[in-house]
Description:
By secondary structure, the protein is an alpha/beta fold. It folds into three domains: about 20-60, no CATH class; about 85-335, Type I PLP-dependent aspartate aminotransferase-like (Major domain) (Aspartate Aminotransferase, domain 2, 3-Layer(aba) Sandwich), CATH 3.40.640; about 350-465, Aspartate Aminotransferase, domain 1 (Alpha-Beta Complex). Helices cover about 40% and strands about 15% of the residues. It is built from 13 helices and 13 strands. The strands form three sheets. It has a seven-stranded mixed sheet with strand order 1-7-6-5-4-2-3, with helices on both faces. The chain has a four-stranded antiparallel sheet with strand order 10-11-13-12. A hairpin with an 8-residue loop joins strand 12 and strand 13 (about 420-425). The radius of gyration is 27 Å and the shape is globular. The mean pLDDT is about 90.
Amino acid sequence: xxxxKSLKNxxxxxxxxxxxxxxxxxxxxxxxxxxxxxxIPEDPLLPEVAYRIVADEMNLEGNPALxxxxxxTTWMEPEADELIKMGATKNLVDEDEYPQLKVIEERIIxxxxxxxxxxxxxxxxxxxxxGSSEAIMLALLAHKWSWRKKRQAAGLDSxxxxxxxxxxxxxxxxxxxxxxxxxxxxIPLQQDKYTINAEDIAPLLDENTIAVGVVVGTTFTGQVDDxxxxxxxxxxxxxxxxxxxxxxxxxxxxxxxxxxxxxxxLWDFRLEQVRTINxxxxxxxxxxxxxxxxxxxxxxxxxxxxxxEINYLGGSIHNYSLNFSKGSSNLLAQYYMFIRLGKxxxxxxxxxxxxxxxxxxxxxxxxxxxxxxxxxxxxxxxVVKLINDxxxxxxxxxxxLRKNGWIVPAYSLPLHxxxxxxxxxxxxENFSRDLAEKLLNDILAAIDYLxxxxxxxxxxxxxxxxxxKIKPHGVC
Length: 476
């Protein structure tokens, strides 16, 4: 026997086992070979291996519990998670095959209409959507059609519709205007004034105005437009001119907060000119991302020509949406949350969230480093700007917080207030007082570090220049 060959065989690296029954998940060949990134691999993988690859990449993402940027719900009970799995296989539009889904959708719409104080003599209607972006477009499209029908019936020109809203709106309002060919009349923000009122809209109204848009809980500062004053002005305008201009309320963020935290505050269907409301269920409706609602005060507010009647799914159904196919997961989850918590449960959670927001707000104000732009009176959102001349900016604080896992956005406000740079922290259900204390300590530690290690002036100027090009979109 060749001694040299025997020694070589003795020290040869053993071949990896590929038997899935005896190899640990990280002991297979995939662990040392690259995975295709831009084309579908030729060969299959075991399900646990494919799962592990995707899960490991997701470990690189931020922690949802520490994401203060998003309004979107990041935690639900295990029972809700099970219902989400159940709904994932059912297309919500298939009413003939899944008729109970339509029943549940109508229940949710009526529950929300009641929550928003629809009058007894109205017959509300609406649909659930992918989010508030779709809901807003459906509501505004209905207002455009109603306006056009009135103009055409009177023999008047209907080619130049316009819509009025403030610069505090979400970007989807601009999308609607561009996509559906409606002139935007945007009211700019001002120093120390980040919402709109009747005085702002008055000079912009005319016979071509299809609606006035107002916001309950703005993306930028968490504040509320002066809806009551705008409603009073539009009533006077209607009496004087005969021009009946509706209000659409974008309650994406605040629609599930105010009814439980400040139920006596007037912003909803109790106001005469408020005809449509959208809300993001995936925010303080406490369900995961992917669901909004649009509520029409009465069926007469939705032109009958807009819903499509289709029969190729097995039966005749009416569909009013921009997204045709969507799963039923969040519909079931929202229905679960409504009957699981009830009003008293929502009230308890929202009050706890607001209490934590106010605690964080007070502590940041008392630190002497920040000015509060909103008083967490309407929305559990803490928005602050640095005071005094610092050698660093809010952007640097945001970057420092990233090192501890926190995602706290820094951004400039819209036009005419774009020299103001803020930090925004959205407080959600799973943000405890303990986490609030931890965030506060990390913010103060970041400031201490930046004071001892000030960034170069050129870096500050570049960050401010880049930020002025970006408008935060929030989450609808």
